[in-house]
Queue: 3 jobs
Job 1
Amino acid sequence: MAKLTVSIAGVDYDRTRAIFDGTIGIEGCETIGCAMSPEEAFHRAFRYQEFDITELSLSNTMNLVAKGACPYVGIPVFPSRLFRHSSIYIRADRGIDRPQDLRGKVVGVPEYQMTAAVWIRGILQDEYGVRAADVKWRNGGLEQPGREPRVPLQLPSEIELQPIPANETLSEHLDSGRIDALISALAPSCFGRNPKVQRLFPDYRAAEEGYFRRTRMFPIMHLVGIRRSLVERHPWLAVNTMSPTSRPRSCATGT
């Protein structure tokens, strides 16, 4: 029987590299590996459904699943898990000394529903009593202008979310003080250059360790999804993807 050829997209981490370099494979499949940044993988998967097996944003996947509109079936494989206390940047000249001081402030975020931002909003509410509605939200590209949400979003009327001008970036807004704080998975370019831009949690490692001790939660950022139509035709694919097998390098295909 001929093997099923599948494309695999995701980030070339240490825990996924064996898939991309062909050291391991999926039983019953010939794989075509496509290593790329998470932003590119998510955009191409959600917008164009380009790949058979792909790394996905947890929050955007949950959004589409809730709407019954997700083209991928998620499996419990999580290539990215990170604490996010380090991802909150503030203007040091706005009286923000603790998380509660974010109430009433203007906070930028590249994408309101991005997984890092979802976790941070949950932490702010659960740990510090700061609700999403307590903050004025602004969205846009971090370093490149014109970023748009990957998945359509409808928010409650109590949430204020407005885009920044399409030709401007959130990093520029934080640098100039047009926003008071920023939530971002990546550090803005003004951080480390502008002394007025600091982290909300300077000792974020200690904050994250304390959070884990209290909650026992290690936040999931990304999961692996398989094209729904493939799983429906080949139910074994989900199990085999979760349990890759070693194979000779000569059998590998991909990058």
Job 2
Amino acid sequence: MERSRIAVAGASGLIGSALVRSLRSDGHEVVRLVRRAPRGADEVRWDPAGRSVDTAGLAGCDVVVNLAGAGVGDRRWTQAYKREIRDSRVLGTAALAEAVASLDVPPRVFVSGSAIGFYGDTGDRVVDEDAPPGDGFLPRLCVEWEQAAAPAREAGVRTVFARTGLVVARRGGAWGRLFPLFRAGLGGRLGDGRQYWSFIALHDEVAALRHLVDTRSLSGPVNLTAPQPLTNREITGDVLGSARVVPKRLLESGFSFAFPGIEDAVRAAL
């Protein structure tokens, strides 16, 4: 990637902060979207709930990456928190997509976060990007989330949806909560152990996001998961839902995983 000006929403999260570090280490100018008054030239004010963005701060950006959203596993799913999960993604994506579309010189690519929750519980059925959405709260959310990016796509901006799996990282996300259990010997499985986990190492997640930015042939949904999902029995975890998702489009576009296996991914995280 040529040195670029890149805007990142959700820059303080697990994936966003790792992406910002990676981009800056390669000399890119990164602008972070923040919900408070900016403290420097590298911050831009936005209000996802109010669907407003300081578009002047996005001027000159070649790339906009949207990774913002309330944590899915952080709190109990009350009706109120479900609304927060939904609004933080759908309204925030709509705000950014509208801002991108309004620019005199729009960015060349808009990478917007999504999730393999799009597919719902697929049991042991292998699914790729051609599969339809599943049933339930998460699939409905992901459909709305991706549809909210329509203004950017309709303005002619290449728009990519990063359907991310379970990110293997020492801190943050589902794996961050499981590592202490593994160390304590409490990582026993629930259910029959045949539920599939579609994981990706944090290193590969960041590399894949950068690959989406660089690969002009990619648009629409792309699964960001390791090529070989493992069962709950193999991982010894405690997630009952099953999603056997494979990264068909990512592999076809030439992406190479640094940590394709779960043992390597865990070692890298630790």
Job 3
Amino acid sequence: MTTMLRFFALLFLLAPIPAQLKLGSLFQDHMVLQADKPIRIHGTSAPNGAVRVELAGKHTQVAADDQGVWRAELPALPPGGPYELVVDGNGALVVRDVWLGEVWVCSGQSNMWWPLEQTDQGNEAIAAADHPQIRLFTVPQKTAQAAQTEVAGKWVACSPETVRRFSAVAYWFGCALQKHRKVPIGLIHTSWGGTPAEAWTRPATLAKDPVLQPIVTRWERIVDEWPKAKSAFDERLARWQEAAAAAKAKGEKEPPRPSAPPGPESPHRPGTLFHAMVAPLAGITIRGVIWYQGESNASRAWQYRTLFPAMIRDWREAFGQGDFPFLFVQLASFRPAESARAGWAELREAQLHTLRTVPNTGMAVAIDIGDSKDIHPRNKRDVGERLALAARAVAYGEKVPGSGPLYRDHVREGRGMRVRFDSIGGGLEARGGELKGFWIAGKDLRFVPAQARIDGEGVIVESPDVPEPAAVRYAFEADPVATLYNREGLPASPFRTDETPASTRDAR
């Protein structure tokens, strides 16, 4: 090789290699893109390079920024497919079997995570789960200290093989939605059992509110003290390992293993799940969110009245798509430890408060389908289908009852109280016999079980022990008997008319 050839060869080796064209990690074969709304597509390429995006006969061209990040938007397109998403710019990419339909993010804690194979009717549902136009994506459980842009996972068509470990609530929601909308459905499942709402919320959002700031302060202290706590734990663990080995050698039961202290990577730390499991989704267009969570915040139920609306606003701000529908499940009946029971009733009240104060929200009541002895009730079909009803009412404007009866107001009538409701559908009814679950009190707020009967669009509540009633409660317990429904079979939400200070008011 001549000296000149060697010189040019060296220049070639030292020259920067143009950045490879990439799409965001959610843009894969078999995906669903949101129909009837502008379609957002993003990725990376050579800095300042031109990128052309084409889908279903529509195309646009954009330029990457100085870091090579590009974002494109195609006009709204109707449901349909399959299509190819073609991207050109320092290379070419083709994403195949792309459908346009309805995209929903499905999130929360363990009752959203709960897999179809571990539910009532699960085996039968799995065997029949051949739904090629329902597409599933599961976000791996990860934590992060800063917002991530990419996420692992794979889009798959719904089948008996792919749905077995998928969220049962999300699956039944998707099935019911497709049955009525008759369009492709994309379900993005991102949940983690046992996690509180603050883990799904950005710390800056929490810090701005004086009610929520104590959460941030508490975790700053935990993180600061973690090295010392971790060192002490390591010593306890070493002693335990010795004791466990000795017990095993003697054929005895080993002592309880010590618990590791929470640290910087905890899935309970503010923002860690938002950063890793929500932020990477915010670059795509969605129809809305379904959410099943609250058990881990029941001990701080009064705070949840502020936290949950703040979390919803935070997600809407991150996605930048206005007040998209946010639908959630009110906690099912369950009998926790005696000391925790008031928190469960107050958490449901916080959820009802959110429904009334945050726009474009919907709530699926599950007070009738819980399990007194199991925090994970196995009936997930009714939950998913009630969320789908809420979606039809809130997201799609259909004339269907989006929920069961919701307390509106009350008025004194003689020796009783008339309670009136919204969302009564075709009318009120008692299921399972007589109307149960109502309590009544006078000005002393000493509640006693009440007699209740349906009268037109309201319920008359009374007791011979309360001649001058002042307040009414319905199903305001952790694990109540509750028999009020509308004729569409949707249960009434628990409520109370009094403003007795919540038992969790001071919990932070």
